[in-house]
Amino acid sequence: MSAVGYAAVAGQIVVVGGGAPLLTGWMRQVRARLEGRAGAGVLQPWRDTRKLLRKEPITPVGTGPAFRAAPALLVATTVVATALVPLLSTDTPVSSHADLIVVVALIALGTLALALAGLDTGTAFGGMGASREMTVAALVEPTILVAVFALSIPAGTTNIPAIVSGAVREPARLASPVGLLATAALAVAVLAETGRIPVDNPSTHLELTMIHEAMVLEYAGPDLALVELGAQMRLTLLLGLLSSLFVPWGIAGNASWSALLVALVVFVVKVAVLGAVLAAAEVFWAKVRLFRVPELLAGSFLLALLAVTASYFMSGES
Predict the structure, then answer these.
(1) What are phi and psi of 92, to 5 degrees?
(2) Which of 12, 232, 248, 317 gives 20 to 30 Å between its CA and that of 127?
(3) Which residue ranges of the chain lie beneath pLDDT 70?
């Protein structure tokens, strides 16, 4: 493997880790402008992180290792998943290990770590948030698996770089019923996994509606900075995965520095556009009632199942 492949993996980690707060700031700024406000600026999440890192970490009395390890585990699993997903290049030293099930398992592990941390606090909010989070995860993770599996059937493998490479060679797959159904299912799953409207509202602290925020209320200082960074990185990673699967053009397919540079620019543009579209949609969307969330996620899972069924029929005809 050439140095370009190693540079691609390192570039993905650096871009997602360093650009995730900027993406969050960009989305907040887009939303503020559409709502007629000035906004705090794109760099505000970085300012918040710097402020939190200067504060003293506080651990609630009675908490155990689950509470203390969850922030680092959340960031670590996201970093590993970022290295595996082909955001900049499909030809990297870890491409052969970038299996669909491994990536989804890493994302689920971070979710589980936060849920255990919420339970470890022993508070009503922590337990409530953990319960809600695992209810959502029980429907979201299978949806991601099944939606991407629908795309893996024509490729004959669950290796994500191979799926992306096949989509680049045969773009007609993405415009087929399979591609459209899988896109819709995965988009809803990404909204739920990242705690965005209409499933959750990341800017609220109302106890009746909190899901993600309820689990992390007891964190402060550097631990809270890690939790916030992990959530921002997951949003960037999942939007990048969505763009790689359904808008794969621009991703480097060979060991070339120029192709890697073009892929970096294209990736930033694609994720920024997706973030702006999501922020604009949130201005006009309303959060659904908590008891309606399982219905929404079950609908997305049904779309993913339909995508798999259509994929089998279409592959059988061909």
Answers:
(1) -130, 165
(2) 232
(3) 1, 204-209, 316-318
